[in-house]
Write a structure and sequence with these properties.
Blueprint (H helix, E strand, L loop, with lengths): L6 H20 L16 H16 L3 E4 L6 E5 L5 E7 L19 E3 L2 E3 L7 H16 L7 E7 L7 H9 L5 E4 L2 E2 L3 E4 L1 E10 L5 E4 L9 E5 L3 H11 L3 E4 L2 E5 L14 H11 L5 H10 L6 H4 L3 E2 L3 E2 L1 E9 L2 E10 L5 H13 L4 E8 L2 E2 L5 H14 L7 E3 L11 E3 L2 E2 L13 E3 H18 L2
Parallel strand pairs: 3-6, 3-7, 7-22, 8-23, 9-21
Antiparallel strand pairs: 1-2, 2-6, 4-5, 5-24, 9-20, 10-18, 10-19, 11-12, 11-17, 12-14, 13-14, 15-16, 17-18
Helix pairs in contact: 1-3, 1-11, 3-11, 5-6, 6-7, 10-11
């Protein structure tokens, strides 16, 4: 058990400065915008990065701003080894302002809860770790390894910030990102996004879905077979509505990491069209190879591993313009080779004249549960919370931990608390923010011994 005599009182003193810093950073609408000189992701994100570095400097950290504005970092301590804490200052758009209880970029406290875009994802947790480190500094703790807070700027989009960092900077020995949930995520599936394309069939107009990583809750057919399709959809008992010149099949949205929790409208539309004699490469592939199976077992077999579970297969979008295009999001178990999955998909798609094209790939991560990093962080979490029931988890999603080797996702959403990132009324409980600061302070102490 870690005992630092002065730390509880020092952490108490950090609460008000931490809260003010979170509010200040959350007031900056750091959403992706058009690039400017020195601001590759827009001026507001550059402003947020600058402010995070100035807060760090005021706490006694050495700071560095990447010359082109892709990232920055704040560092303290001495030694050959480098421990990193990876956070990000960019946020997603607020969405409909009517759904918010207040201006999303004017953070307010109600009943001990701080509301505002970015207070949970990821400005609040990142600053909680920063101020936790500052409490250690105030306690006179010497860091036997260098501690580096890395501030990313493009986490909500294509991670171009970290690609630049990895190409130019020292790679940390170990670290964590406070950009997920407690107690800890030690393994994540590989994330493959790809398209299948073929020339559009004359007279068939298809559209549906809104993103690779979401189960399509709507899909539309426009064409001469609309009436026949309508009868077939009713026979299959699919939800639908008639539209002018076509049919809209209604599904149920879900995240691509849990496609089994949704109802894919694109797949249902393809099944119905194929059943009533309407054919195209995309329709036939979806109807005959996928159906409504979120694991695509006809193509891949029952692919899974003990830690990260089953392969998940999501049809996110379909469109027919110059080409007929299916957009796919595939979550591949950490121990399964991506190339074997791609080979089977290409072989299946080729039968229908569909051409495979990779859009994006995030390699899996796997840090053994018995590793020093996982055991150290779990010990700290349990010491602070007394929670010995919650266990390290795996994820089908993509946390920022993938950006660095030997990095795990560690907080800051506690078990039983809602994950409200990207949603209206994003918030964080102040007692959770302060408890996270305590956890991060002890974790930093342990990792830098």
């Amino acid at each position: 058990m870690i005992k630092i005599p002065d730390l509880p009182a020092l952490l108490e003193q950090e609460k008000d400065p931490l809260l003010e810093a979170v509010k200040e950073l959350a007031r900056i609408p750091s959403i992706l915008q058009e690039a400017e000189t020195g601001a590759p992701f827009g001026r507001p994100i550059a402003q947020a990065l600058s402010r995070a570095l100035s807060i760090s400097a005021s706490l006694g950290f050495r700071t560095m701003l990447e010359p082109d504005g892709y990232y920055g970092y704040a560092e303290i301590g001495q030694g050959e080894e480098l421990v990193a804490i990876l956070g990000h200052v960019d946020v997603v758009p607020a969405g409909s302002l009517a759904d918010w209880r207040q201006d999303p970029f004017d953070p307010q406290i109600t009943d001990g809860i701080l509301y505002g875009r970015g207070v949970q994802d990821d400005k609040g947790p990142t600053l909680a770790a920063l101020f936790g480190a500052h409490a250690l500094m105030q306690a006179g703790i010497a860091f036997n390894k260098r501690l580096r807070f890395i501030f990313g700027t493009d986490e909500e989009n294509l991670w171009r910030c970290m690609k630049r960092y990895l190409a130019q900077e020292e790679i940390p020995t170990s670290g964590f990102t406070p950009d997920a949930k407690f107690p800890l995520i030690y393994a994540e599936k590989g994330l493959l996004q790809a398209t299948l394309e073929a020339p559009t069939e004359q007279g068939i107009h298809l559209s549906g879905g809104s993103a690779f990583n979401a189960v399509a809750d709507s899909a539309v057919y426009m064409g001469v077979a609309a009436e026949k399709l309508r009868r077939q959809v009713e026979l299959l008992r699919y939800d639908y509505q008639s539209i002018n010149g076509g049919v809209q099949v209604i599904g149920k949205a879900a995240h691509a990491q849990v496609p089994e929790e949704g109802v894919n409208a694109i797949c249902r539309l393809a099944i119905a069209l194929h059943s009533c004699g309407v054919h195209s490469p995309a329709i036939d592939f979806l109807a005959q190879e996928i159906g409504e199976d979120p694991y695509a077992r006809k193509i891949f077999g029952d692919v899974q591993d003990e830690d990260t579970g089953r392969l998940k297969f999501n049809v996110g979008m379909i469109e027919s313009g110059e080409v007929e295009r299916i957009s796919l999001d595939i979550r591949i178990p950490a121990s399964v080779e991506k190339q074997k999955v791609v080979e089977k998909l290409v072989q299946s798609a080729d039968k229908y004249g569909l051409k495979y094209q990779q859009r994006d790939w995030l390699a899996p991560i796997y840090i053994p549960r018995q590793s020093d990093l996982v055991k150290t962080l779990m010990d700290v979490y349990r010491q602070v919370t007394g929670d010995y029931d919650s266990q390290p988890e795996t994820s089908g999603g993509a946390t920022y931990a993938r950006a660095m080797p030997n990095c795990v996702a560690f907080g800051a959403v506690f078990p039983g608390r809602p994950k409200v990132e990207h949603q209206p009324n994003e918030h964080i409980r102040l007692d959770d923010l302060y408890t996270a600061m305590q956890i991060y302070a002890l974790a930093i102490y342990a990792l830098t011994r």
